[in-house]
Amino acid sequence: MGAGVPNADQRLDARDLAILELVQRNADWSHGEIGRQIGLSVSAVNDRIRRMVAAKVIRGWTADLDPGALGLHLLAFVNVLIDRAELIPAFAERIAAYPEVQECHHLAGDWNYILKVRVPTTAALENFISCELKEKLKVSRTATTIVLRSLKDSPALPIMNGGAAR
Amino acid sequence: MGAGVPNADQRLDARDLAILELVQRNADWSHGEIGRQIGLSVSAVNDRIRRMVAAKVIRGWTADLDPGALGLHLLAFVNVLIDRAELIPAFAERIAAYPEVQECHHLAGDWNYILKVRVPTTAALENFISCELKEKLKVSRTATTIVLRSLKDSPALPIMNGGAAR
DNA sequence: CCTGAAAGCAAGTCGGG
DNA sequence: CCCGACTTGCTTTCAGG
């Protein structure tokens, strides 16, 4: 990939941002309905969306599922420490393949990684930490925090329309 | 099953789960293409998706956007402590309204909440923590961890197809 | 780059098995 | 509960300003 700023040539204007704000909240609206809400024709909306998909600003379209309906009643954040540096590449390569790991972020701080993990039960969590993380992936230490309730859990990104104040 | 199980009557079979796995990865496939992949007719796929939307198993449809393309170059997890219990309801009521807060989870452990926060710069993060969290929302203490790199950051949920092994 | 009309295609609705 | 044809509506394209 090129050096520097990856979106230097993307030039999203206020109408693009308005479209993004709408489609990340409800991708099911027709292009006509989007156009009506922001004062644009159907074709213009279509063009802009196509361009943003091509530019990878829009990476894809997904269904938003209810974890509880799928039996995923437990959400936890697992901090991960790996003592020996030579074990980190293997961990980094394999951790993303676990479906119960929704997120894995490399951290600046006391821990190497933080994982967002969704499982049905505490038994499944224990199995994941003991067997997968510690045994297979050679994680030295973990610190797990159980989520009691999610007040907000949205993939929606903050979109600043021309720096408008709150 | 005992009372209190919210999805006791939903009865998702293996075909429903297969559909969910597909649409959460790519909601753009036509019902015909989904049916071809799992061996079902267009109408059957349509019926099942309609039923799962009505049952709120599918909560909606969203566009997956690239944070970097929107200038959101900083991701951080902010742990929040609120000393005085009477300040917690106001926090809980107002925190979800912040667009830079992607997630807010009530925790079991040393901290009250963990926030997943996306902002353009460290300056914006400092402003959010100092002005919004500490000043306006009366948060007592925070511990912020900066994300250096996200190895995985997906809203996709783990869907267990009849206990299939990894 | 946006508009407006025309064509292609998928979603949603039927009756039937 | 699944299938197949029909109808409706949206997406997509095209010519034009």
From TrEMBL, chains A, B:
This is Lrp/AsnC family leucine-responsive transcriptional regulator. The keyword Transcription applies. Residues 12-73 form the HTH asnC-type domain. One of its GO terms (cellular component) is cytosol. One of its GO terms (biological process) is response to amino acid. Signal peptide: none annotated. It comes from the Bacteria. Pfam families: AsnC_trans_reg (PF01037), HTH_24 (PF13412). Keywords: DNA-binding, Transcription, Transcription regulation. The keyword Ligase does not apply. GO terms for molecular function: sequence-specific DNA binding.
